[in-house]
Design goal:
Strand order of the largest sheet of chain A: 2-1-3-4-5
Shape of chain A: globular
CATH architecture of the largest domain in chain A: 3-Layer(aba) Sandwich
Helix content of chain A: 40-55%
Strand order of the largest sheet of chain B: 3-7-8-9-10-11-12
Order of helices and strands of chain A: HHHHEHEHEHEHEH
Structural class of chain A: alpha/beta
Largest interface: A-B, 31 and 35 residues
CATH topology of chain B: TIM Barrel
Largest sheet of chain B: 7 strands, parallel
Structural class of chain B: alpha/beta
Oligomer: heterodimer
Helix content of chain B: 40-55%
Largest sheet of chain A: 5 strands, parallel
Number of domains of chain A: 2
CATH class of chain B: Alpha Beta
Number of domains of chain B: 1
CATH superfamily of the largest domain in chain A: Cobalamin-binding domain
Strand content of chain A: 5-15%
Chain lengths: ~220, ~400
């Protein structure tokens, strides 16, 4: 299996080709981690760049993410036994009072594609649930989403509760969503803000002091 | 020193601006959610008992007395409710709309609630299921009940310009029915389904336009072609080629139909598209599709800078909205609201073609003081000629 073909299939969103190439790679004895870090991750990273540059839009990005997921299905059971590349656990969810999930889902998919262990805990999530899950999943990063200006107070409440608790040194909190800005993120004491999914990958790598690949 | 004197009626002001001429003053328009409306009425000291029936977005019609006291030039009028009752939910927090989409009432952190789509009825549907689906009926007699008389009364007995919506969205209604992620994926992997669904929805919306324009068209100044949100905060939702290939043909047919029917009734009437987000890419196409007015001009979204929009498209397109509701109106000070409104008037109003108002329905987190500040800025800086 040639990695270039896998990267290309992810970019083109060809789910059946991605699935069969990953299966073929494993049969040929390739390491699951290698397939992820040299095939699926670079593919999704290019998709993220294309999106950021305005060459791909939501439909194409979702299509590629779906293809990537078809490949991940083969790898997840193997990867969960070992450690993934970054060894970082990310919890992602939309804050209380807000049921919007497409932005959160896309960020979650791109983070998965970047090799993080992503736990998507859904929408309308109260602070207590975020805090419980941070402990349960041994999270390094909490990613909060909000679409409505009217739910920004819930985002603030969640960030403040975490920053006032014992979890403050354990987890970094990043925020995003249409009404969220760098200024708002600073005001509520979050550790980072990104305007889109590729930006979120970069921000998490910075916070975890992981190598940020030059793009 | 500008002489701040009104020389036009509210309707004349709106009609003049929409004909790309300078009226006496920039017109003011606003739609509000129930919570914001209650707060505003209280602030204005208006003790008016009325039954409020909020729509999907918790928006409510502004009573003419409130509109007059606040100083609006445009009034948004509702239509009738279908006689056929939608499916009932067993959960008191959930309800179905006439399209069969399930919504859930969600409490907001600082009081009030919002309706959120919680189940897309066509999420697993095939093309065949589209034909068999129980679609809403534009000929339901409840839709027009009392509507003609009320529109005629507002037209004859008040000065307001009338803004309304009949047949609603096509592209956006498709994701309500299918689920947004699923529908966007369909656009890549299932284009035949997309075409069948958009055709069906456009046909129904055309039915609503036909029935309601025939009832009220001569009284309508602005027909809102409903919410076809095509932008996120940063980007268009879909590419321009995909829009042209898959969405434009359906919208073009519907808009041409609505515009022709409407102009036959009122030659001064205009059609308006509501499309949130970073949508600049699509504007030349919309102009080509004979659009008159674009709403809401989400000026905080990428590429939606008002000066750029005015210089690129201001001679062909009018703008409605522009006053930021994501940050400035809910969280800004009175001074910040005034400054923002002044800047947007200076950018968008010269030569006419601008109706000032909040970007989208005012939410419950907007202090009434800030709405008053927006209105006061229109009164202070909105008289022609616009001063820099």
């Amino acid at each position: 299996m040639h990695m270039d073909n896998l990267v290309k299939a992810v970019i083109e969103g060809d789910a059946s080709v991605v699935s069969s190439l990953v299966a073929q790679g494993l049969e040929e004895g390739l390491d699951a981690m290698t397939i992820l870090s040299e095939g699926l991750t670079p593919g999704m990273s290019i998709v993220g760049d294309l999106f950021h540059k305005g060459e791909y839009f939501l439909p194409e990005m979702l299509y590629s993410a779906k293809a990537m997921n078809e490949g991940l299905v083969h790898l997840e059971s193997i990867l969960s036994k070992g450690n993934s590349n970054s060894n970082a656990n990310v919890i992602i969810g939309t804050v209380k009072g807000d049921l919007h999930d497409i932005g959160k889902n896309i960020v979650g998919m791109i983070l998965k594609g970047a090799g993080f262990n992503v736990y998507d805990i859904g929408v309308n999530v109260p602070t207590e649930t975020f805090m419980k899950m941070i402990v349960e999943k041994d999270a390094d990063i909490l990613a909060l989403s909000a679409l409505l200006s009217t739910t920004l107070p819930a985002m603030e409440e969640t960030v403040r509760s975490i920053k006032e608790s014992d979890l403050k040194d354990k987890v970094s909190v990043i925020v995003g969503g249409a009404p969220v800005s760098q200024r708002f993120s600073d005001d509520i004491g979050a550790d980072g803000y990104a305007e889109d999914a590729p930006g979120a990958v970069k921000k998490i790598k910075e916070l975890l002091k992981l190598e940020v690949a030059a793009s | 020193m500008t002489q701040k004197k009104k020389t036009m009626t509210k309707r004349e002001r709106v009609v003049t601006a929409l004909n790309h001429q300078e009226p006496d003053r920039v017109p003011l328009s606003m739609s509000v959610t129930i919570q914001a409306y209650k707060n505003l009425k209280k602030y204005l000291g208006i003790d008016l008992k009325e039954t409020l029936n909020p729509g999907r977005w918790t928006e409510v019609p502004v009573n003419p007395l409130v509109a007059e006291k606040f100083g609006l030039d445009v009034i948004w009028l509702p239509t009738g409710k279908p006689e056929k009752k939608p499916r009932q939910s067993e959960d008191s927090n959930k309800w179905f709309d006439s399209w069969g989409v399930e919504w859930t009432k969600i409490s907001l952190p600082k009081g009030g609630y919002y309706n959120e789509m919680s189940c897309a009825p066509l999420k697993d549907a095939t093309i065949k299921d589209i034909e068999d689906y129980e679609w809403p009926n534009p000929n339901d007699p409840g839709i027009i009940e009392g509507v003609r008389d009320y529109y005629q009364h507002i037209h004859k007995d008040t000065e307001f310009a009338i803004l309304t919506k009949f047949g609603g969205a096509v592209f956006e209604q498709a994701w309500y029915l299918r689920g947004m992620e699923k529908f966007l994926l369909d656009m890549v992997e299932n284009p035949d389904f997309v075409n069948a669904l958009l055709s069906k929805i456009a046909e129904i919306q055309m039915g609503y336009d036909e029935v309601l324009i025939s009832e009220t068209g001569e009284f309508v100044d602005i027909l809102r072609l409903s919410g076809e949100d095509m932008g996120t905060q940063q980007n268009p939702i879909l590419s321009l080629p995909m829009f042209r290939r898959m969405v434009r043909p359906h919208l073009e047919k519907l808009w041409a139909f609505a515009k022709e029917k409407l102009l036959a009734k009122n030659p001064n009437a205009k059609i308006m598209l509501h499309s949130c987000g970073a949508v600049k890419t699509f504007i030349p196409d919309w102009i080509d599709m004979k659009l008159d007015i674009l709403d809401p001009i989400q000026t905080k979204a990428k590429g939606m800078d008002p000066l750029g929009l005015k210089s690129d498209f201001g001679d062909k397109l009018s703008f409605h909205g522009g006053i930021d509701s994501q940050n400035v109106l809910p969280f800004g000070t009175v001074e910040e609201v005034k400054k923002f409104t002044k800047e947007h008037i200076q950018a968008l109003a010269p030569g006419g073609g601008y109706i000032c108002g909040p970007v989208h329905n005012v939410q419950g987190d907007v202090p009434p003081e800030n709405l008053i500040a927006m209105r006061d800025a229109v009164e202070e800086f909105g008289y022609y000629p616009i001063m820099k």
